Amino acid sequence: MFEVGDLVQYGGMGVCRVRELRTVCASRTQPGGQEQLYYVLQPLYQNCEVSIPVDNKKVLMRPVITREEALALIDAIPDAEPEAYHDSSFQRLAEHYRQSIVSCDCADLLELTRSLYAKKREAESRKKKLGVIDERFMRRAEELLFGELAVALEIEREDVPDYIAERLSRRGG
Predict the structure, then answer these.
(1) In whole angstroms, how far apart are CA 14 and each of 8, 28, 81, 124, 142?
(2) pLDDT confidence bin for 11, thresholds 50/70/90
């Protein structure tokens, strides 16, 4: 169970701080008016509040990665060449991207982001633009990935791309 003040990755919301634990009487949703414990989450990069049951099983919630895990993820970037994913069906394309987003796994988000950058370079080499679906999922993957890396590395989210580039250039990557 998470404690007040903990930083967590919560589904598509990204990084949130557990602001409060609240007991709510669920008389309408549960027979007998049983009380249920809720997390009150404050997303770091959105101006809202989210309340979710502590025993929530529908949306993934996990601790934010550590600094060491973030650095290991960055250091592994040069080891694999990303492949652009192509599909003529917009539905299958979006579903492929959505799977990486909903996993809330930094490695999946990094792979998706790198794959979409490869696809963007391919398109630009043919004097084309990246598709709307590709652009939308690239922005979303970057938001989630950079938000978590920023927290783990204790830097601003907008500084993450430069941090990655600098670290890789120092390592020869």
Answers:
(1) 8, 29, 26, 30, 11
(2) confident
Cα-to-chain-centroid distance, residue 79: 21
DSSP the chain: ---TT-EEEEGGGEEEEEEEEEEEE-TTTSTT--EEEEEEEEESSSS--EEEETT--SS-EEEPPPHHHHHHHHHTGGGS-------S-HHHHHHHHHHHHHHT-HHHHHHHHHHHHHHHHHHHHTT----HHHHHHHHHHHHHHHHHHHHHHTS-GGGHHHHHHHHHHHHT-
Let me know how long the chain is: 173
What are the strands of the beta sheet with 50-53, ordered from one edge?
Answer: 50-53, 35-43, 14-25, 7-10, 61-63
Q: pLDDT tens for residues 72-94?
A: 999 999 987 888 888 889 899 99
